[in-house]
Structures are given as structure tokens and as C-alpha cells.
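Journal club prep — side note

Before the paper discussion, L.F. wants everyone to see what a predicted structure for a comparable chain looks like in C-alpha cell form. Sequence:
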Amino acid sequence: MLVLDDVDRILRPESETHPVDKGYEQLIEQMGQRVHRSSLLLVSRDCPKVLDTEEASATDMRRLQLRGLTVEAGLQLIQLYGLDVASEAADLLIERYSGHPLALKLVIQAAQTFFADDPGAFFADLTDNLLILDDLRHVIDQQLAVLLPLERSLLIRLAATGCEPVTFQTLWGSFGGDQPLLKSAVLEALSRLRRWSLLETSDRGFSLQPIMTAYVKQYLQESPDKGAPEALSP
């Protein structure tokens, strides 16, 4: 078995002078299209385009989208790090950080370091405020570095509603809502955000996880020529 981690970064050009290594693309493409007895495990925030083909879908290929920790697993992590906090606060912590293992680890360590006498006080305002610590911010920075202006704008518009779902018509209408070209562009941008696991979808519309909402509100700014969007009504 061959394991490749951070595949989205491997296949992402750093600049015009440092293009994608075609060798990796060819390796993944051949593994996805040919019959063989080997195994290739890819860890990526996005499905490589070389596998997103009709030929690849016909092979013995499986996709698994990783979700956040369950409440039970999150409680085990909290106990593993020795955080003494009420069960209600622990449940809220796991819910607000969507079971994100790295986020939970960093927040637990911060609570133990700066609120050793009363860790519960650290979680008192989790409903309204989430800490985005440096290591976690760095991970999200990397993930959002490849976003196009329209994709950034969609995240900002969704963050303005908190975590409440927003329909496509509402999102499209926030850009004017009467241009067919823009409609297709918004659909394509939403599709890309969903592929990158930056977007939550339901029968009620599109939304962001609490941790992404907090990041966008704190760090992601609208392009100067776009202007800050108004808050949308779900």
C-alpha cells in the first residue's frame, strides 16, 4: 500500500514557476484507471480531478468523507487530556467545534494553561464566541488560500447569517439575481466549496459550521472592490 497525504497540496501549483508535479498526477490517474493488485490511499481536502472521471468511477475506488468526532469520541478526548469540566460544557464544546479533533485539542490545552483554577469559566461564552487558535488558523488559512473572490464572498455572506441555512435563491439574489452567467458561476462556486468540505448542505439550504463561521467573521475580509455584503435572511 502507498499512502499520500495532503494530496490537494501536492497537486496544487505553488506559482507559475513551480507548477504541479505531473508525475503525481500520472501515478494517481494510472492507479485509478488500470487493473492492479496494489492499494493507494489518498488523504486530501478535495478529490483529485484526475480521479473525478468516468473511467475512474468504473474501477474499484472508494471515497470516504471524514466527519468530526461523535459526542462519545469527543468526551473520550477530553478525558484523555484530563480536562475537568461539567458534562454540559463538554457537550457544548464538542458541538460548537463540530468534533474537530485539532480544534478540541488546542482549546483543551488553552483552557488548562490559562484557566487552570476554573476551566468552566473558559467555556462560559462558547455559544457566542469561539477561539480560533494559531495552529488551527494556519490549517484553515491554507485551505482557504486557493479560494476565488466569488467563493470568498459566498463564505462571508453565509457567515453573516451565523449557522442558519440559506437557500440558493437568497444567495444568488444577494448578487443581483438576474444574470444567467452569474447564476452558473454561483452554482459552480458552491459546488467547489462543498467539494472542499467548507460548506454544509441540507434540505433547508447552505450553511457553515460554527468554527468556519467564527473564522470567516474574524479573519476573512471581502475584496476591497466588492464591498462588504449585507447580512442575508435565511
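L.F.'s comment for the group: Confidence is low (pLDDT under 50) at residues 222-231. Keep this in mind when we get to the figures.
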